């Protein structure tokens, strides 16, 4: 009996060991893969090699320039050589990983009959109007008309003329090296009307080292799908001043034409408000010599924060807000003037803050206090005010005065406040800015995922993280026949993608999605050239 009991006990021990081994095997074979699958960080494959190759992108921005020679503009021997094409290419010296080259393709030809007739008129404005009638020029292109050296079309002391359209007029020269001399002058005019180092530096300011470019280069607003513009009238002393301003009429007459011309850069909304008892937050200093008050230049940055808390527009806005403030100083601090760094009064009595807006101080005529009791009725001169605000608006968008060559007659902006070639230059800069931002976003995403291993990458994020649109843009730009219209077509290819943010995407993926949306919106507003 004892032997039988011992055998049964040994059998139970063996069965227990086998059961333990079986359960261990099941746990290893089934449990371990199940645990691994349920705790793993899913990462859809990303094109890391293509992303790393974005740093080697090269942009060749081509500017087609048509050079039209009239009779007696160059020696007869040179006229017989027409037509022909000359290419001038130079690299923009920026400390940026993306190489940018600007290529001017100059196509020389003789003037047609209607062009000869137009350039024989009495004034360059009449000639420009007649030349624009047959057909409009392609976006991003320029046309330079070379007239006789002694033509009365230009003032005698002027060698060239830059108009509001995409045209310029230049005097010829009777010299054996006429084409070489005129070619250098054409490049000077084309650079004034097209891309320059400063324009691209301003567009890439956020991507360049700060020691290379001063803070003034950071003035332009960043590219966005839309902008909100707010005009505010600040009346800190309503007991003394009854201020009236026709802001609706001023916006309709002066601001809206400018925004319509600038519509390719984004959507705009305009509103206005009147704020009473709104102070600047900085105590002006009294000048006994002039019996007036002044704001020193070093105190101007401290003016914005106290006023901004009263505006209340930027907190709920999805787009950048541009604030334009008209400040009527209180009677106790009138008249009030703004001083520059040298202590001299600013002619416009206004200043602007980059990427924020501008403030103008509007002093009441001292004679008004002698003629009536308080409060004094104040009618704001909206023409003078809008001249300042439009100039500030141009600066905020990076539309600065061009660097003209010597002895160049400049027509100034059209009635819309924006010249056609200024819009072309702005769209060039915005396109380069958007491309640089998209490239930086993709590169940063790849670096972040390499450092943090537990970030989930879903399939929808991976499908949106693609370098194909940027590659197509780069390929078209580096081709020898690329033009402004080709650049637009390359950008337009982004519109075919559905780029709506999805739930569960990391913030970097959302940023890339938004960036491609801005890039697509920019291309949708740009007209394609023929």
Automatic annotation (TrEMBL):
Q: Which InterPro entries match?
A: PtdIno-glycan_biosynth_class_S (IPR019540)
Q: Which residues cross the membrane?
A: 19-36
Q: Where is it mostly found?
A: endoplasmic reticulum
Q: Specify whether ATP-binding is a keyword of the entry.
A: no
What topology does it adopt in the membrane?
Answer: Multi-pass membrane protein
Sorted alphabetically, the Gene Ontology BP terms of this entry are: attachment of GPI anchor to protein; GPI anchor biosynthetic process
Tree of life domain: Eukaryota
Q: Where in the cell is it found?
A: Endoplasmic reticulum membrane
Gene Ontology CC annotations of this record: GPI-anchor transamidase complex
Q: Which UniProt keywords apply?
A: Endoplasmic reticulum, Glycoprotein, GPI-anchor biosynthesis, Membrane, Transmembrane, Transmembrane helix
**Family according to the record:** Belongs to the PIGS family.
Q: Please identify the protein, giving its name as recorded.
A: Unc-119 lipid binding chaperone
> What organism is this sequence from?
Equus caballus
């Amino acid at each position: 009996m004892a032997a039988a009991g011992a055998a049964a006990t040994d059998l139970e021990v063996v069965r227990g060991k086998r059961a333990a081994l079986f359960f261990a095997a099941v746990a290893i074979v089934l449990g371990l893969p199940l645990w691994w699958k349920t705790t793993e960080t899913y990462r859809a494959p990303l094109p890391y090699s293509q992303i790393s190759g974005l740093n080697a992108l090269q942009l060749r921005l081509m500017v087609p320039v048509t050079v039209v020679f009239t009779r007696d503009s160059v020696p007869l021997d040179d006229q017989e050589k027409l037509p022909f094409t000359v290419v001038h290419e130079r690299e923009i010296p920026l400390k940026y990983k993306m190489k940018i080259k600007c290529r001017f393709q100059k196509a020389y030809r003789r003037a047609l009959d209607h062009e000869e007739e137009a350039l024989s008129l009495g004034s360059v404005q009449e000639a420009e109007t007649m030349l624009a009638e047959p057909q409009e020029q392609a976006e991003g292109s320029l046309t330079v008309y070379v007239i006789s050296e002694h033509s009365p079309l230009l003032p005698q002391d002027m060698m060239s003329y830059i108009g509001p359209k995409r045209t310029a007029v230049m005097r010829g020269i009777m010299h054996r090296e006429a084409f070489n001399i005129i070619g250098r002058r054409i490049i000077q005019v084309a650079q004034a009307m097209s891309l320059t180092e400063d324009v691209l530096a301003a567009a890439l300011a956020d991507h360049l080292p700060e020691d290379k470019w001063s803070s003034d280069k950071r003035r332009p607003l960043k590219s966005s799908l839309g902008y909100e513009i707010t005009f505010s009238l600040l009346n800190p002393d309503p007991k003394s001043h009854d201020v009236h301003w026709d802001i609706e009429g001023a916006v309709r007459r002066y601001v809206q034409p400018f925004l319509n011309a600038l519509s390719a850069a984004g959507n705009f909304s305009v509103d206005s408000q009147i704020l009473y008892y709104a102070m600047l937050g900085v105590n002006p200093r009294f000048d006994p010599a002039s019996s007036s008050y002044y704001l020193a230049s070093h105190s101007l940055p401290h003016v914005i924060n106290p006023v901004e808390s009263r505006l209340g527009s930027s907190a709920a806005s999805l787009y950048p807000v541009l604030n334009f403030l008209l400040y009527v100083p209180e009677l106790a601090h009138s008249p009030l003037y703004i001083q520059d760094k040298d202590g001299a009064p600013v002619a416009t009595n206004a200043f602007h803050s980059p990427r924020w807006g501008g403030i103008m101080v509007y002093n009441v005529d001292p004679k008004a206090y002698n003629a009536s009791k308080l409060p004094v009725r104040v009618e704001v001169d909206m023409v003078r005010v809008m001249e300042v605000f439009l100039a500030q608006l141009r600066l905020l968008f990076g539309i600065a005065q061009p660097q003209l060559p010597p002895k160049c007659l400049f027509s100034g902006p059209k009635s819309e406040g924006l010249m056609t070639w200024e819009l072309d230059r702005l769209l060039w800069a915005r396109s380069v800015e958007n491309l640089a931002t998209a490239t930086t976003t993709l590169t940063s995403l790849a670096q972040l995922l390499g450092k943090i291993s537990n970030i989930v990458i879903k399939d929808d994020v991976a499908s949106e993280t693609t370098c194909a649109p940027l590659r197509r843009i780069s390929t078209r730009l580096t081709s020898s026949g690329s033009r402004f219209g080709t650049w637009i077509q390359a950008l337009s290819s982004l519109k075919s993608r559905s780029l709506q943010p999805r739930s569960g995407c990391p913030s970097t993926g959302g940023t890339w999605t938004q960036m491609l949306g801005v890039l697509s919106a920019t291309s949708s507003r740009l007209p394609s050239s023929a």
